[in-house]
User: Fold Chloride channel protein from Catharus ustulatus.
Amino acid sequence: MANVAKKVSWSGRDRDDDEDGRAGETTPLLNGTGPGAAGSGRQLTPSPFLRIGQLSNVDLNEEVHELETEVPRQRPNEIPHNEKLLSLKYESLDYDNSENQLFLEEERRINHAAFRTVEIKRWVICAMIGILTGLVACFIDIVVENLAGLKYRVVKDNIDKFTAKGGLSFSLLLWATLNASVVMVGSLIVAFIEPVAAGSGIPQIKCYLNGVKIPHVVRLKGLCYKCPSVPYQAVPTGGLASSMSSLKLPSLLFQIFEYFRRDTEKRDFVSAGAAAGVSAAFGAPVGGVLFSLEEGASFWNQFLTWRIFFASMISTFTLNSVLSVYHGNAWDLSSPGLINFGRFDSEKMGYTIQEIPIFIFMGVVGGILGALFNALNYWLTMFRIRYIHRPCLQVVEAMLVAAVTATVGFVMIYCSRDCQPIQGSSVAYPLQLFCADGEYNSMATAFFNTPEKSVVNLFHDPPGSYNPMTLGMFTLMYFFLACWTYGLTVSAGVFIPSLLIGAAWGRLFGISLAYLTKGSIWADPGKYALMGAAAQLGGIVRMTLSLTVIMMEATGNVTYGFPIMLVLMTAKIVGDYFVEGLYDMHIQLQSVPFLHWEAPVTSHSLTAREVMSTPVTCLRRIERVGTVVDILSDTSSNHNGFPVVESNPDATQVAGLRGLILRSQLIVLLKHKVFVERTNLNLVQRRLKLKDFRDAYPRFPPIQSIHVSQDERECMIDLSEFMNPSPYTVPQEASLPRVFKLFRALGLRHLVVVDNRNEVVGMVTRKDLARYRLGKEGLEELSLAQT
Amino acid sequence: MANVAKKVSWSGRDRDDDEDGRAGETTPLLNGTGPGAAGSGRQLTPSPFLRIGQLSNVDLNEEVHELETEVPRQRPNEIPHNEKLLSLKYESLDYDNSENQLFLEEERRINHAAFRTVEIKRWVICAMIGILTGLVACFIDIVVENLAGLKYRVVKDNIDKFTAKGGLSFSLLLWATLNASVVMVGSLIVAFIEPVAAGSGIPQIKCYLNGVKIPHVVRLKGLCYKCPSVPYQAVPTGGLASSMSSLKLPSLLFQIFEYFRRDTEKRDFVSAGAAAGVSAAFGAPVGGVLFSLEEGASFWNQFLTWRIFFASMISTFTLNSVLSVYHGNAWDLSSPGLINFGRFDSEKMGYTIQEIPIFIFMGVVGGILGALFNALNYWLTMFRIRYIHRPCLQVVEAMLVAAVTATVGFVMIYCSRDCQPIQGSSVAYPLQLFCADGEYNSMATAFFNTPEKSVVNLFHDPPGSYNPMTLGMFTLMYFFLACWTYGLTVSAGVFIPSLLIGAAWGRLFGISLAYLTKGSIWADPGKYALMGAAAQLGGIVRMTLSLTVIMMEATGNVTYGFPIMLVLMTAKIVGDYFVEGLYDMHIQLQSVPFLHWEAPVTSHSLTAREVMSTPVTCLRRIERVGTVVDILSDTSSNHNGFPVVESNPDATQVAGLRGLILRSQLIVLLKHKVFVERTNLNLVQRRLKLKDFRDAYPRFPPIQSIHVSQDERECMIDLSEFMNPSPYTVPQEASLPRVFKLFRALGLRHLVVVDNRNEVVGMVTRKDLARYRLGKEGLEELSLAQT
Assistant:
């Protein structure tokens, strides 16, 4: 034990060899992020609330002691998986380069021209990301369109055949079976092979851009699994997730260019991928850039933004070109995005000042409905986490939802009997179903079209196309079905269903308004459908700036920008009053250490001293190999970063911080046997190149795979040229908001806390900051768990 | 001298009392930023190039010695005002709060509800900024419109009168006099009263958002002076600056709310003001936000962005409402911005893939023409700095330009004789001038309309409205006139003139193309006018993302987003190959310590040790009042931030860094006599409140105005509770890009460089970072001067 490492505790004075600590970060459990792992959590830190404001003057050593003794006592407790936990299984990305000697030497060798080449390569990669994203989006669009057509034909043929014979129940059965079987295939893939493909993908991307390493999220394999499961989501829900999957492309490109093998560059390219995905989905390049920035950016860099914008533009252009050719009108570039809301002609449909209070009222409604949606989905997700965590159960649930959707749809079609003249209508798949000849059943149409098409119909069909009863029933049913669907083990998002729900009640609202005002010309139901869609989506996901721009670009109209913004803002404010956004909720339910934009407002009372993890495992600048191996092998404290201190401190020299070295770097050093015998310290140790580190990126071998003989254990390793000699530090007195700002703005992974003499007293990592949250009763602290 | 202060040099071992140093920042010379101050510079640091890469192993003390002895030798040299200088007169904003005990105590007292109130106040202020900006923009619009109408009528009446008599020369004289006299008034105001109102205001705002304190830029007085001078710019040049002036509004609001009296909040509100200004000018709320972010943001904060967006939206909405009412069509909100490019109907005018190479070619042309414009303006500006630096000369030059503009216009109108049928044309002020009845002179129209209207005409007039010769002549003349005008002592920008030049040659290009392709339907001259305008503006100012969105919003059309982006990107890349953007050029010519987005790529060879200012004047935690007064009174080194070190270091305790205190804080302490007698150190010194500091903000009294008696000089002052106990620090080994990133991302003003024992070895301020630049031959270092 004495050999393990020197540990420095709170004040740097009393060192002990206790293994228990919560410093550094832990390695992830290697399987998926699914709820299956729930319930196995161990609580590592006991105090749910720090006694805020009382800590500053108490004896610090006593405080440590108390923490340390409490830890083992609470450990055996089982903690239910809930949002008051923070999982230790997520690692952090390192947006800060390790500026060690090797890195600096390489950078100094590179001249100006070479830097220009690197910059050009970055642009090329962004262009490739854009092109590939566009192509994948095209592929998805074409497949979805054909599948929807196929489904329509099969169902229609059968209904035609059996309606004649009166065998309606058989039609229902057929439809339900069809739905359930396609969902089954998609669900099987997600549940058994690639859990990360579940859901819309947006929460995962949000986390990744925030700096949390989500396993598998940027792997090419994910894309391969996601693609086939995508078409099924058109049956019965949304279609956004499709394009989000293209986020996985950057990693392919990233393999090709060796220089870019670092978290910094990778995250930049993922940002570009996210922007390109949104851009292709909605034909909204600016909206894509803003999405990427709103969700991910920490430090806004102009050059990076331009590259992201470039990727977005290329992506929507590629999609546009290919789809234009596919639809036979080559060269005219008429299909800017997968999801096109149709053009609102602003000359015909402006808005007047009197309508603004109405829009705000719609925002309020959207906020309340969104909050209701999120609350229902929260309970449902908690239920799923507790009881439906086996893959086979998940598949069964998905199939059940599909069957129920079909049944509900069928019953509603049967009951509503809302027949509309087929002439002059723009619907793609009119179903006659119980209607007179020359008419179509509008409820059936709403269920049978892809949801994207239904949204467009609700926006643009002339007044009088929909029966208010139909819309009301449809809203009600679809609301609950969509809520049930989100979180299922299929690749299905919430974007399009939300828009559809909102468009339905918005149109209903518009119709009522026209009725109340006796058919005033300004009460165009299509306009209110648009506002309702914005309100509902805003109430659920709580995005504002990027969503405003996406809606503006998807409708090809800037006139409605102001009312859309008002509606989104109102929906967000109202919704936030009740519960948080759907994505944030799911991120929290996954116990992801997500860093928000700012530290909680009332956290000025906490200082780095109270926040940091301690004691910290430090390494000496010239360290025994055996010690390094023991530290790395220690499974109870899987630290990823180790402060390096001076080797032989004497009276005149304090053991001040000299640098920081990462687990991955140590592993590469051990693998290449970079050390010298203790008796022969003057020998030069083997020199490594930066390439050796890059080759190992991003999957460094585990320490167990590296064999170190007993003789080698006694050798010494000089860390000077591999450690980062200038890690960022904060003094113990710094307040939490200050520490947070530094950590967040620079995208750090490790932040060393030092005392007045530059001695290491603690370490701040992502989870130390993410665990403080503003709850209903003020500042609260989440518990850490291994779930 | 021994009493002055403890100074810590490179290694912290050898202290000396030499007054010469370049640490900290200097107070500004209090008068304007005009070129009048040129030529009086003193060079403080001698070495134009650090011997890069050689420093790491030399004896540091020797290095210091060398620097110190060289300084006095070079001091008397006169340095011509050029772009290789960095002025010491600009101060930096402090985006980092001084987290001293008072601040923390206040923050800790404030509960959650109070923070919500603060947040609501922020929103209210943003709304007020938006409303006021909108109103100011309305006022400007109405005045400009009426003045343009007045001018048109006066000139037309006279021309009509005198043309009959053949007295053309009198008409010319009248026109020229009219132009010159209005310009004179504007010029007099700018030259003698408020120099900061000169130009477009964009470079000033860029600097402010970058963190440079430009005197007077956010003062209400500036707005008052700017407003009356604005109308004149419609005669003969641009009209953007108008709206930019509204940036000055935030400071008014800012006076009302006491809590917000810090640089952090002020800068946020100025960002909102900038966004609101652009938003009102172009009816481009998203473009405004992006402008503000592209030019200013360092750390992207979601909440801040939303507030800025809100202010933008409110501003364009206010403008829209008021102007709609003014124009008699209340409620219909048909005037989204001051400058409206008219709606491009995308159904009629899409673009095809074949046109993309043509657009790129136009981007190249725009880039070359833009570079030419900037190069010409550069020489002109150098000429002005050297020879036209007296205010009266500046006024004469402005009048000369106005008269020449009128003359050139007149001659061209006379020569061109380009008559167009008046029917079906949309021009507001058709001038018959030498044309047959029922026709108007299109050259005269181009000169007589406000430039905004001319741009719209060039975009939307049907093919055949312009004679190619007219367009060519107009482009040529206007190019040189605009180039001459920019930088004059009037409030005139470059935005609209650039658009006009670009629209003219773009339309000419479109006409030629239609001619060459024998009138193909796709070669619509209006579309090419738009692309030409984008190319020219992009080539001059080099904005991309925000400009793309501004153009998209101003044309109310998202279809052209992709080609506009391509054109802007190409223009930027081509232009950057020759010279930099106009705004950056002027910022550099003003020797402003402007921080770009990243450190120069090849600067990894420099470390904090080589970059920092040294020696640093440090204060002890408990310091003698006399020492503080002496340090503050020392005019040779007007430092603004002082590291605080431990009072009585002994063998076991090093004199490590304890905090950082600002000049402004020290002055408030002295003013309130916050000190105790040396013999009575146990007495509690007077307690101050944060309010005492805020009341003094932002104009702290000079040290000379504070009387300290001889007895008081012997008292002691305890800085512990007023200093920031956790200033950001970097180790000496940190590379320049690393230091730069920390400084830029957090918007710092002072960054302390410490050694391994946490002892102060140097200080990095804005000018230490801004002076490294990537020149043609690699890294170059600017000299510092008092200009």
